[in-house]
Amino acid sequence: MQLSLQKKMSNTRALLLVLYFLSLRLIVPAQPVEREFGQISLSDFRLSLPGIDEGAGALVLFDIGSAKLEGYEDGFRLEFKRTLRIKILNKNGFDAAKVSVYFSPDDNGRGKLKHLEAKTYNLENGSILTTEVAEKDFFIEKSSGDMVKESFAFPNVREGSIVEMNYRIRSSSYFKLRAWDFQGKYPVVFSKYSVRIPDIFNFVILPQGSHPVSSRTENPAWETIVAGNKWYGANVHTVTWEASNIPAIQTAPFVSTIENYISRVQFQLVMQPVSPGKSVVLLKDWKYASNRLLSSNSFGDFFLKNDKWLHPEVEKICGFYKSKSDKAKALFRFVRDHFTKEGNGLFVSSGLSSKAVFEKRAGSVAEINLLLIAMLNSIGINARPVILSTRDNGLTNVTYPVMDNFNYVVIRVDMEDSTYYLDASERNIGFNKLPLSCYNGHARVVDTASIPVFFSPDSLTETKITNVTITNDSGGFSSLDYVSALGYYESLHTRNILDSSNNLSFFQKIASSYSFPTSIIDASIDSFKNIDEPITLRYKLRFDPGKEKYVYINPVFEDAIKDNPFKSDSIRLYPVEMPYCSDHVYILSMQIPEGYEVEEMPKPIKAIINNDGGLFEYLLRLNGRTIELRSRVYIKKAIFYPEDYQLLRDFFSLVTGKQSEPIVFRKK
After folding, report:
1. Residues 6+ apart with CB under 8 A from 423
2. For residue 391, with 0-12 CB atoms within 10 Å meaning exposed, 13-18 middle and 19 or more buried, which class applies?
3. pLDDT at position 245 over 50
4. Three-state DSSP class for residue 212
5. What is the DSSP letter of 527?
6. Can you tell me the mean pLDDT for 302-330?
7. For residue 68, what are the CA distances in angstroms to 28, 71, 130, 235?
8. Residue 657 — φ and ψ, nearest 5°?
9. From the centroid of its chain, how far is CA 218?
């Protein structure tokens, strides 16, 4: 077996995805770990981890698994075994006693798994009481694809219980060598995973995570393997990973997906034997992978077929436009506005044609965007697919084409010396705009060159400029004139909100955010239907500043950042991953209310984050009877490393504190 180690890359997070090579030292666990199912002892009820948070609810005493690639009468198969023992610390851990196991019924016998045992242990009067899960308590239900899910709940579970299960799964889908998570929802005392593979196979090994994991390779042993009616001679290698005292994975705000940081090991099949002495390469490089996609029935065939029906339909939509740019925009608008998205996914449904999607006016992200590629290509516009992983799906591998990590398709269009990226499946999205979820680093153009592209959140800056003018009105009232040019993605969010509500309720909600009773008049939204452009909100309102001796008015009004988004004072373990950079400028011109004078004003301030990370300006001055304010919150980076978290927290604490300070007016 040729075991290759490869790092999962990211332009901003590579340092957090740590590889542990075979030469690393073996970590000796704190407790005996070579345990067997059913070998429970009184010491298990006393076993704990130093400094464990009781709020964790449960403690994994050990989690031991193995995967063996072996021959049998029909060819090769994988045998996966797992033994898991968990101590329930308190009621917060009761969910650990609810289990689901996924498997293929074709490989493991129809119905329930033959090799699945589960028991609950309780300590009563110094003795261990055992309760087995009964056959009738195992439930089977259909899962995705050809998989089924077998679920059960451990019986007689209470605080202090220990639950244990042991199972074996065999699969003829041997190319899907199971990944192993050393880290999860609950802390783990010890975790171990072994893979045993003949060297006639070649897997890329993809470790990730920051918790120390050791690995070792045992000496290979020569074996003769019978697979089907063929005989193979091979050195069989065993690789084992071990980890101990593993903390629970902790979710945190502003993390695109915690899956990027779980300590785990994954595998990708590169080469497999087809006969003794002959192997086929499944994973060479990105060009090889792109060519396979282009020749696939569920990808390339969908948009590369020369369908005669398509060109006349395209001409009906954009034939009267002259330039390629106008034609491309017309086709994009047609698909975006007339097609309904029915799920994500990288591939087209089996047997589905582009004509069927066109006539149905609905499809998955892949089906809609690949159809638009076919439409663009039919009139000579160079359009190609770009595959990527959305932020909530995790990072992709820059070096190796690990296709399981990709879940989304967008479009690259090259015309008139410019490059555009499109997603016609997204409601209210503009031309040459992508959803924020697509900005997750590495993506790949699917063509013969197969070049990488990078959609970094650092490349996006959401700019918002708000102007507020307050003048004295008749009868002691003040008139507020509000104009705010929103950033593009806030505009997209606003359009989506207004699709499901109405302007009146939208502005009523804005009015309710003010600290004084008021109603909005003369409200309007500029460029609402021009989806390619940001929108501008305009409204006016009147308010009574009051007749009290002292009047307190917050000059930033509803635009103030009221809560610090980084509240936690604990040590940050993961990067802060914002969806974009942001630049919000707020400008106020306010006449002092009639009959009042300024008693106190907030002091001006200017602060920065770590030289170039961000800027906060709060410049307030009195110009005659007019108060002038310019506030700017400029975040120059979308991603901050954990060591910068406290600086970021202090920065926003300063912003929220300053923007909440009122101007104090005193009655003359």
Report:
1. 365, 369, 410, 411, 429, 433, 434, 435, 438
2. buried
3. yes
4. coil
5. T
6. 92
7. 24, 10, 31, 14
8. -65, -45
9. 37
